[in-house]
């Protein structure tokens, strides 16, 4: 995704798909800058399947790749251990 994408941009991209409260984690590079990746926590498996249908759709000029991830991946990106 564009490195400057915000939570609001991501919510707009996934319009109609239920993102869990606090469910957007923007990944940062080792120097603390956004790296163009994010993890999204959805409310259930049905929402995950809807989100996967957005694979290779565009956000602005960039196409977005969508993959499944584990809960621990979200925690790591969101700042947990």
UniProtKB/TrEMBL annotation:
Keywords assigned: Repeat, RNA-binding
Any GO MF annotation of the entry: RNA binding
Keyword Isomerase included in the entry's annotation: no
SUPFAM superfamilies noted in UniProt: RNA-binding domain, RBD
InterPro entries membership: ESRP, Nucleotide-bd_a/b_plait_sf, RBD_domain_sf
The protein's name: RRM domain-containing protein
């Amino acid at each position: 995704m564009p490195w400057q994408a915000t939570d609001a941009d991501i919510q707009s991209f996934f319009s109609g798909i239920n993102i869990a409260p606090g469910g957007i984690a923007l990944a940062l590079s080792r120097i603390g800058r956004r790296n163009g990746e994010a993890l999204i926590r959805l409310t259930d498996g049905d929402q995950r399947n809807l989100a996967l249908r957005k694979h290779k759709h565009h956000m602005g000029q960039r196409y977005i790749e969508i993959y499944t991830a584990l809960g621990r991946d979200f925690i790591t990106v969101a700042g947990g251990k």
